[in-house]
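Issue 218. Parser rejects a valid record. Input:
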Amino acid sequence: MQQLFTLSRFNVTLLSGLSTASILWSHGVLAGTITQNGSELLANPNVSFPTINPTLIDDTLRFDGGNVLFETILRWDLFPANSLTSTSPTTSINITANLTRLTNSVDPEDWDPTFFLWDGTNIIGGIFGDNLGGAFRTIEGTSDGTFNNIIQGPLLDAGNGFPNIGDSANFNFNFELGTVSTEVTLSGFGETLSFSTNNIDRTQPLSFLIARNEVHERYDVNSITINSDLIPNEPQTIPESSNIVALFVFLGLGLFIIKRK
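Output the parser choked on:
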């Protein structure tokens, strides 16, 4: 007899006879995405603050001035070693950080948030700078996770979309981790800058770092969003009030199939 319906998509668990049914399925919304605000980042065991303890203001993390150029203020350990192997297909990690521009008493206009992907030794990423009303710089280098030794690329004028003091903006990085090289794209202010690099070992543990550009610069980190196929889809559960209805739909479908036979 020809099979009329495929039920393998549904995972049905019956507890206490037929009293409870829990039906699980994959997200219909964007899969593999994690967004955390300041409160959630502060409570996240995989997030650390190597050089300064931030102040939590509502759901925002505030980082005041520091001591060393390009020191790491926030580190988020994303994926353990061997999440990707040398033969894995090209895999993307897309990161958006929402920050608010703050002033300071030394150089009130100076504000250049800096972001890296780190493999435990090497860093790749870039700077979003206030120069020219908004500018990009590519970065490669090395890091111990706290202090970063960088090589900066040329300054690229990104237009006039840089946030004013007190305003917030999204700073986006896309890392296409290939078998031979990684394509990095910086996006912000309506502009993009892309470059290729082999200064990352994708088989190593991968972390996201936010670093200060100058010691007097101050930052409000409002949220960070990570999107990647490396993030597993989380199942969702039908609310308990729907369990009985779902159970009878499932049983009715089974009876229909039996009668058709």
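Fixed in the parser; the record now loads. The longest helix spans residues 243-260.
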